[in-house]
Amino acid sequence: QVQLEQSGGGLVQAGGSLRLACAASGRTFSYYAMGWFRQAPGKDREIVAAISIYGGSTYYADSVKGRFIISRDNAKNTVYLQMNSLKSEDTAVYYCAADRQWTGNLKVRASAYDYWGQGTQVTVSS
User: Fold this and answer.
1) Closest Cα to residue 100, out of 32, 4, 26?
2) Using CA of residue 98, residue 68, residue 79, residue 95, what is the dihedral sign?
3) Are 117 and 25 in contact (CB under 8 A)?
4) DSSP secondary structure string, 86-103?
5) DSSP calls for 28-47
6) Residues 38, 16: Cα–Cα separation, whole Å
7) Who's near 45: CB < 8 A, 6+ residues apart?
8) Tens-place pLDDT, residues 22-44
9) Average pLDDT over residues 85-104
10) How many CB atoms lie within 10 A of CB 13?
11) What value does the mean pLDDT take over residues 2-21?
């Protein structure tokens, strides 16, 4: 089992940047594909980005392509989400998640992920 501890987030003006981090416990971090999700009030949890076990493959939701960057450092057991050119519609609680059953394909459904961080609020003021 892995525990995920998130950091970062907060309040930023539109057009600004934030970086989220998600640190995993245990020695098997490099076995897990990782994802970032977000959930705005009254909306379903949605995929933001995902990254393969060694970082060679990434996925981005259309709404964040060209603005967000997902990366990972397996030596530090950490996955990051760099968020640039933030918009008010990016306001949500952001979650990192780990997929323990890497099959070679990145997963976009929340139900496919096994472990979750505690969530962190990102608020973008216009």
Assistant:
1) 32
2) negative
3) no
4) --GGG-EEEEEEEES---
5) -GGGSEEEEEEE-TTS--EE
6) 18
7) 37, 38, 39, 95, 110
8) 999 977 898 999 999 999 999 99
9) 96
10) 10
11) 97
Half-sphere exposure at residue 109, Cβ-oriented, CA atoms within 13 angstroms = 2
Tokens of 119: 């969530």
Give the other-Cβ count within 10 Å of 109's Cβ.
Answer: 11
Pairing of strands 10-13, 120-125: parallel
Tokens of 110: 């929340």
For residue 28, what pLDDT is reported?
Answer: 87
- Backbone CA torsion sign across 18, 97, 119, 47: positive
Query: Distance between CA atoms of 86 and 66, rounded to whole angstroms?
Result: 11
d(C-alpha 72, C-alpha 20), whole Å: 11
Residue 41 is encoded by which pair of tokens?
């009030």
Tokens representing 73?
């450092």
Say which residue the tokens 């987030």 belong to: 9
Per-residue model confidence (pLDDT) at position 70: 98
Paired sense of beta strands 58-60 and 46-51, if any: antiparallel
